[in-house]
Protein backbone atom coordinates (compact mmCIF):
# COMPACT_ATOMS: atom_id res chain seq x y z
CA UNK A 1 0.00 0.00 0.00
CA UNK A 2 1.25 3.46 -0.86
CA UNK A 3 0.86 6.60 1.22
CA UNK A 4 1.48 10.28 0.54
CA UNK A 5 1.60 13.34 2.76
CA UNK A 6 0.06 16.79 2.39
CA UNK A 7 3.48 18.00 1.22
CA UNK A 8 3.55 15.32 -1.49
CA UNK A 9 0.14 16.44 -2.74
CA UNK A 10 1.23 20.08 -2.71
CA UNK A 11 4.30 19.27 -4.82
CA UNK A 12 2.21 17.31 -7.33
CA UNK A 13 -0.33 20.13 -7.53
CA UNK A 14 2.47 22.67 -7.95
CA UNK A 15 3.53 20.89 -11.14
CA UNK A 16 -0.06 20.65 -12.40
CA UNK A 17 -0.78 24.38 -12.15
CA UNK A 18 2.26 25.22 -14.26
CA UNK A 19 0.02 24.30 -17.21
CA UNK A 20 -2.24 27.24 -18.08
CA UNK A 21 -4.71 24.90 -19.80
CA UNK A 22 -5.66 23.53 -16.38
CA UNK A 23 -7.26 26.84 -15.39
CA UNK A 24 -9.52 26.78 -18.46
CA UNK A 25 -11.55 24.17 -16.56
CA UNK A 26 -10.58 24.35 -12.89
CA UNK A 27 -12.30 27.67 -12.15
CA UNK A 28 -15.67 26.78 -13.74
CA UNK A 29 -18.33 26.79 -11.04
CA UNK A 30 -21.34 25.47 -12.98
CA UNK A 31 -21.56 23.71 -16.33
CA UNK A 32 -24.03 21.81 -18.43
CA UNK A 33 -23.56 18.51 -20.22
CA UNK A 34 -25.94 17.94 -23.12
CA UNK A 35 -26.83 14.40 -24.09
CA UNK A 36 -29.52 13.42 -26.58
CA UNK A 37 -32.46 15.74 -25.93
CA UNK A 38 -31.64 16.26 -22.27
CA UNK A 39 -28.97 18.05 -20.31
CA UNK A 40 -27.35 17.61 -16.91
CA UNK A 41 -26.24 20.46 -14.66
CA UNK A 42 -22.98 19.85 -12.82
CA UNK A 43 -21.18 21.97 -10.24
CA UNK A 44 -17.59 22.15 -9.05
CA UNK A 45 -17.08 20.23 -5.79
CA UNK A 46 -14.48 22.82 -4.77
CA UNK A 47 -16.81 25.45 -3.28
CA UNK A 48 -13.97 27.89 -2.72
CA UNK A 49 -14.06 28.62 -6.45
CA UNK A 50 -17.22 30.59 -5.74
CA UNK A 51 -16.75 31.68 -2.15
CA UNK A 52 -13.04 32.52 -1.71
CA UNK A 53 -11.50 35.51 -3.49
CA UNK A 54 -8.72 34.43 -5.84
CA UNK A 55 -9.34 30.69 -5.67
CA UNK A 56 -9.24 29.31 -9.20
CA UNK A 57 -8.40 25.64 -8.85
CA UNK A 58 -8.43 22.62 -6.61
CA UNK A 59 -9.57 19.05 -6.01
CA UNK A 60 -11.72 17.54 -3.29
CA UNK A 61 -11.40 13.97 -2.12
CA UNK A 62 -12.55 11.45 0.47
CA UNK A 63 -11.56 7.99 1.65
CA UNK A 64 -12.47 6.26 4.89
CA UNK A 65 -8.82 6.35 5.96
CA UNK A 66 -7.87 9.88 4.82
CA UNK A 67 -11.19 11.53 5.68
CA UNK A 68 -12.33 14.66 3.86
CA UNK A 69 -9.49 16.22 1.84
CA UNK A 70 -8.95 19.30 -0.26
CA UNK A 71 -6.10 20.69 -2.32
CA UNK A 72 -6.68 24.23 -3.59
CA UNK A 73 -4.84 27.19 -5.06
CA UNK A 74 -5.58 30.91 -4.93
CA UNK A 75 -3.88 33.92 -6.48
CA UNK A 76 -3.93 37.57 -5.48
CA UNK A 77 -1.67 40.05 -7.23
CA UNK A 78 1.64 38.36 -8.04
CA UNK A 79 1.36 35.73 -5.32
CA UNK A 80 -0.14 32.25 -5.70
CA UNK A 81 -0.62 29.93 -2.74
CA UNK A 82 -1.37 26.22 -2.46
CA UNK A 83 -3.18 24.78 0.55
CA UNK A 84 -3.71 21.12 1.37
CA UNK A 85 -5.95 19.62 4.06
CA UNK A 86 -6.07 15.90 4.79
CA UNK A 87 -8.15 14.17 7.46
CA UNK A 88 -10.92 16.71 8.01
CA UNK A 89 -13.98 15.36 9.83
CA UNK A 90 -16.44 16.79 7.33
CA UNK A 91 -16.65 18.77 4.11
CA UNK A 92 -17.27 22.11 5.84
CA UNK A 93 -14.14 21.70 7.96
CA UNK A 94 -11.86 21.14 4.97
CA UNK A 95 -13.08 24.32 3.26
CA UNK A 96 -12.71 26.32 6.49
CA UNK A 97 -9.19 25.02 7.13
CA UNK A 98 -7.99 25.76 3.59
CA UNK A 99 -9.53 29.25 3.74
CA UNK A 100 -7.77 29.90 7.07
CA UNK A 101 -4.41 28.89 5.61
CA UNK A 102 -4.97 31.12 2.58
CA UNK A 103 -5.84 34.02 4.91
CA UNK A 104 -2.67 33.45 6.92
CA UNK A 105 -0.57 33.46 3.74
CA UNK A 106 -2.10 36.50 2.04
CA UNK A 107 -2.23 38.58 5.24
CA UNK A 108 1.30 37.93 6.43
CA UNK A 109 3.45 37.11 3.40
CA UNK A 110 4.27 38.66 0.03
CA UNK A 111 6.18 38.00 -3.16
CA UNK A 112 8.95 40.59 -3.31
CA UNK A 113 10.31 41.31 -6.80
CA UNK A 114 14.11 41.23 -6.59
CA UNK A 115 14.72 41.11 -10.36
CA UNK A 116 12.49 43.25 -12.60
CA UNK A 117 12.57 42.36 -16.30
CA UNK A 118 10.95 45.67 -17.28
CA UNK A 119 13.83 47.74 -15.94
CA UNK A 120 17.21 47.72 -17.77
CA UNK A 121 20.08 46.62 -15.56
CA UNK A 122 22.31 49.38 -14.22
CA UNK A 123 25.22 47.59 -15.90
CA UNK A 124 26.09 47.85 -19.60
CA UNK A 125 27.74 45.06 -21.55
CA UNK A 126 30.87 45.54 -23.62
CA UNK A 127 30.64 44.28 -27.21
CA UNK A 128 33.65 43.30 -29.31
CA UNK A 129 33.86 44.09 -33.04
CA UNK A 130 30.54 45.92 -33.01
CA UNK A 131 29.46 49.23 -34.49
CA UNK A 132 28.72 50.26 -30.91
CA UNK A 133 30.94 49.40 -27.95
CA UNK A 134 28.34 48.59 -25.30
CA UNK A 135 24.67 47.77 -25.00
CA UNK A 136 21.86 47.92 -22.48
CA UNK A 137 20.66 44.61 -21.08
CA UNK A 138 17.76 43.33 -18.99
CA UNK A 139 16.58 40.21 -17.18
CA UNK A 140 14.54 37.71 -19.19
CA UNK A 141 11.84 37.47 -16.50
CA UNK A 142 10.89 38.71 -13.07
CA UNK A 143 12.15 36.84 -10.01
CA UNK A 144 10.21 36.93 -6.76
CA UNK A 145 11.18 35.98 -3.23
CA UNK A 146 8.39 34.70 -0.98
CA UNK A 147 8.87 36.24 2.44
CA UNK A 148 7.13 37.55 5.53
CA UNK A 149 5.80 41.10 5.25
CA UNK A 150 7.93 43.89 6.72
CA UNK A 151 10.96 41.61 6.95
CA UNK A 152 14.04 42.57 4.97
CA UNK A 153 15.56 39.51 3.36
CA UNK A 154 19.29 39.03 2.82
CA UNK A 155 19.28 38.90 -0.99
CA UNK A 156 22.36 39.09 -3.19
CA UNK A 157 22.54 39.20 -6.99
CA UNK A 158 25.55 37.95 -8.92
CA UNK A 159 25.86 39.17 -12.53
CA UNK A 160 27.59 36.81 -14.94
CA UNK A 161 28.20 38.21 -18.44
CA UNK A 162 29.31 36.30 -21.51
CA UNK A 163 32.12 37.57 -23.71
CA UNK A 164 30.04 39.01 -26.53
CA UNK A 165 31.15 39.58 -30.10
CA UNK A 166 29.06 41.25 -32.81
CA UNK A 167 26.78 40.62 -34.53
CA UNK A 168 24.09 40.14 -31.88
CA UNK A 169 20.33 40.60 -31.94
CA UNK A 170 17.90 42.08 -29.48
CA UNK A 171 16.74 39.27 -27.19
CA UNK A 172 19.95 37.22 -27.43
CA UNK A 173 21.12 35.69 -24.17
CA UNK A 174 24.30 37.44 -23.06
CA UNK A 175 24.65 36.16 -19.50
CA UNK A 176 22.71 35.28 -16.37
CA UNK A 177 21.92 36.52 -12.87
CA UNK A 178 22.28 34.19 -9.90
CA UNK A 179 20.07 35.01 -6.92
CA UNK A 180 21.18 34.15 -3.37
CA UNK A 181 19.19 34.25 -0.13
CA UNK A 182 21.21 34.08 3.08
CA UNK A 183 24.17 32.91 0.99
CA UNK A 184 22.24 30.02 -0.58
CA UNK A 185 21.46 29.99 -4.31
CA UNK A 186 17.70 30.09 -4.90
CA UNK A 187 17.41 30.83 -8.60
CA UNK A 188 18.82 31.99 -11.89
CA UNK A 189 17.55 34.37 -14.58
CA UNK A 190 18.97 34.93 -18.07
CA UNK A 191 20.30 38.32 -19.14
CA UNK A 192 19.16 39.48 -22.60
CA UNK A 193 20.40 42.10 -25.03
CA UNK A 194 18.13 45.10 -25.48
CA UNK A 195 19.76 46.14 -28.75
CA UNK A 196 20.84 44.87 -32.16
CA UNK A 197 24.55 45.28 -32.86
CA UNK A 198 25.98 44.93 -36.34
CA UNK A 199 29.53 43.79 -36.94
CA UNK A 200 32.14 46.39 -37.89
CA UNK A 201 33.12 46.37 -41.56
CA UNK A 202 36.38 47.35 -43.30
CA UNK A 203 35.49 51.05 -43.45
CA UNK A 204 34.59 51.09 -39.75
CA UNK A 205 38.06 49.78 -38.90
CA UNK A 206 39.71 52.39 -41.17
CA UNK A 207 37.69 55.14 -39.51
CA UNK A 208 38.66 53.87 -36.07
CA UNK A 209 42.36 53.85 -37.00
CA UNK A 210 42.15 57.42 -38.29
CA UNK A 211 40.34 58.63 -35.18
CA UNK A 212 42.98 57.09 -32.91
CA UNK A 213 45.98 58.19 -35.02
Walk me through the topology.
Blueprint: H1 6-16, H2 23-26, E1 30-35, E2 38-43, H3 48-51, E3 55-63, E4 67-76, E5 79-88, H4 91-108, E6 109-115, E7 125-128, E8 134-135, E9 137-139, E10 143-148, E11 155-161, E12 164-165, E13 173-181, E14 184-193, H5 202-211
Parallel strand pairs: 7-12
Antiparallel strand pairs: 1-2, 3-4, 4-5, 6-10, 7-8, 9-14, 11-13, 13-14
Describe the structure.
The chain has 213 residues and is of the alpha+beta class. Helices cover 22% and strands 43% of the residues. The protein contains 5 helices and 14 strands. The protein has a 4-stranded antiparallel sheet, with no helix packed on it. Strands 3-4-5 form a 3-stranded antiparallel sheet, with helices on both faces.
What distinguishing features does this structure have?
single chain, 213 residues, alpha+beta, three-stranded antiparallel sheet, 14 strands
Q: Strand portion, in percent?
A: 35-45%
- The CA-CA distance between the termini, in Å, is 82 Å
User: Sheet bearing the most strands, described?
Assistant: 4 strands, antiparallel
The counted number of beta strands is 14
The strand line-up of the biggest sheet is 9-14-13-11
Structural class: alpha+beta
**pLDDT < 50 stretches:** none
Shape: elongated
Mean pLDDT across the residues is: 92
Radius of gyration: 26 Å
Q: What is the N-to-C succession of helices and strands?
A: HHEEHEEEHEEEEEEEEEH
Number of helices: 5
Helix amount, in percent? 10-25%
Amino acid sequence: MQYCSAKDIALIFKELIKHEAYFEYSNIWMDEIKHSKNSTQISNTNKLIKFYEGCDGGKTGFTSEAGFCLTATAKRGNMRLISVVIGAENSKERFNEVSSMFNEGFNNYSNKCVVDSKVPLDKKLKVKCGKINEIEVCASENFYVFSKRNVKENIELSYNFNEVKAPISKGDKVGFITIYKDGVEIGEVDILSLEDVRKMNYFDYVKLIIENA
